[in-house]
């Protein structure tokens, strides 16, 4: 499942992904992501929060890679926050498909991810 949160007044979105991502998840999420890119005043920064992430169905992985290649230059920094090795591996896998600076942060270092994205506090100004 993919849930997208728009952070008001910032060129930033929070993407929460959980479970095993499916092609249908991407079919729902991609139009919203492209709309966020259209509204951004510059490169869109992204905080990806992986929660109980189990990977992708093969069709979903293909959708992810196609989206990344299509929007190669459209993103600023991408911080990925997750629970462990799979999430770190997923971050490394997607890095060659974007020109955005991408980094993985373990859950206990989420505050560092916010700082790296240039946020003073949490993604909702917490």
Description:
The protein is 37% helix and 33% strand. α3 links the parallel β4 and β5 (102-106). The chain has helices at residues 23-39, 58-70, 85-94, 110-116; strands spanning 2-6, 12-21, 44-56, 75-82, 102-106. Residues 122-126 have low confidence and may be disordered. It has a single domain (2-116), classed as Rossmann fold. The protein is built from four helices and five strands; from the N terminus they run ββαβαβαβα. It has a five-stranded mixed β-sheet, sandwiched between helices. It has 126 residues and is of the alpha/beta class.
Features:
126 residues, disordered C terminus, Rossmann fold, five-stranded mixed beta sheet, 5 strands, alpha/beta
Beta-strand portion reads 25-35%
**Overall form:** globular
Oligomer: single chain
Q: Indicate the CATH architecture.
A: 3-Layer(aba) Sandwich
* Biggest beta sheet summary: 5 strands, mixed
Distance between the termini: 24 Å
| Assigned CATH class | Alpha Beta
Strand order within the widest beta sheet: 1-2-3-4-5
Structural class: alpha/beta
Write out the CATH superfamily name.
SpoIIaa-like domains
Output the helix-strand order. Answer: EEHEHEHEH
Radius of gyration: 13 Å
Write the layout of secondary structure elements.
Layout: E1 2-6, E2 12-21, H1 23-39, E3 44-56, H2 58-70, E4 75-82, H3 85-94, E5 102-106, H4 110-116
Parallel strand pairs: 2-3, 3-4, 4-5
Antiparallel strand pairs: 1-2
Helix pairs in contact: 1-2
